[in-house]
């Protein structure tokens, strides 16, 4: 009784998917309606997202979601990767393909920004960790382009797709926080920073909170997807990581989480930002979450390292590769999985080998050895992020929750438990979609604060537990080795 169907669109850097969530007071069921590749394209002008192909995937997915729900959806919501945006002209037409955050155009831009607003002041005002692709730096790089001169609006990628589905424009708060133009204390635009940098905040549509209405599917969209209207669209935590953190099946307060997919986002949920200089030096970010929360976390390069190697090796079977990697001895060599040197695509096995050689460690040669080096390095980076976050925020941690596609990698889950010296609970592989549907369900009347939503998940979702093996001494030593370099 009281069970309704919701469509969650989740756009990851490696694939987009549309999931159907059926949610009631005591049940949550998620099934995949449609998955489509997200294939960035290298054009003469640089690396670009194929945004129209993604929109096509969203429409196909909504049609498939409708087919699974008798043509009736209680609502739909979109989340996706952070920081990137489309520019619209005065008539609302898209000006070119959105630039990919791995594009090289932001090289050297941060230094120019810091000449006007020093990095320390930027952090104190926005709480966002340095990454070359933060929207602030992308907009700064964009400002000298011909298309920017025509731009009347900036829409972050999930907001852009929401606009195409509904005809209504807004800027959802959790993703807005990744622009580095939001003050995490007031949870609204950082006018001071924007003003000093000459960024016109009127380019952004008004802020929306997760749970706010975001319009309804346009008649053309209903016709194309075969859905019966009206279908309201809900602003969810439109940053995929914000939605994934909603779906962490925690039952207490002393937990850390790691969202593992293309990226690993590892940290804590807090009620207030940590804006100290020590926190900045440790490269922790304060992104905004549901219900007034702060996502205090570190961005780690994540399974991107493995994806790029697998691509270079001609897409071998991942299951076999991971079984072979499990047989390689632990911690022979590690690289810094937080290093921005691994951001750009291409030559990944070589770049990892070079990093090992340069630091005087054994050079991994076979795909199994390289894979093991990546997974050990990721587990070590997870350890450092969890322990650093706990220390910097003065927040004890007894358990680490893993969610996202990386939970399908049992070796990574086990190594993370070993490295952290803490029990690991692996939850949903499609955590972002799960958090997305819960926020929609709540907007449609499901009762519950964030802890209650999480308890609902802990009762209804399959969880896998990993206990730490052996002593953490070896991981501590590897951590010290890496820090010494
Ligand atoms: P994103 O949302 O960033 O696109 P996902 O959360 O979907 O990423 O995670 C994708 C990653 O999950 C892949 O790079 C891969 O390493 C891992 N993964 C997916 N399926 C499997 C599997 N069957 N076994 C092991 N790892 C997997
Ligand atoms: C993960 C993610 C992450 C961002 C990165 C650009 O998909 O949204 O939180 O930092 O993409």
Q: Give the termini distance in whole angstroms.
A: 59 Å
Number of helices: 19
Mean pLDDT, to the nearest integer, reads 97
Structural class label: alpha+beta
Runs in which pLDDT lies below 50 for 5 or more consecutive residues are none
Q: How big a fraction of the residues is strand?
A: 15-25%
Bound chemical compounds:
adenosine-5'-diphosphate, 6-deoxy-beta-L-fructofuranose
Total count of strands: 21
- Backbone CA Rg: 21 Å
Shape designation? globular
Strand order of the largest sheet: 17-18-16-15-19-20-21
Helix content: 25-40%
Largest sheet: 7 strands, mixed
Family: Belongs to the FGGY kinase family.
EC number: 2.7.1.-
GO molecular function: transferase activity
Protein name: Rhamnulokinase family protein
Can you walk me through this structure?
With 485 residues, the protein is of the alpha+beta class. Helix content is 39%, strand content 20%. A hairpin with a 5-residue loop joins strand 17 and strand 18 (294-300). Helix 15 (367-393) crosses helix 16. The longest helix has 27 residues, at 367-393. It starts with a strand and ends with a helix. The structure holds adenosine-5'-diphosphate and 6-deoxy-beta-L-fructofuranose. Residues 12-15, 261-262, 303, 306-307, 318, 404-406, 408-409 line the site of adenosine-5'-diphosphate.
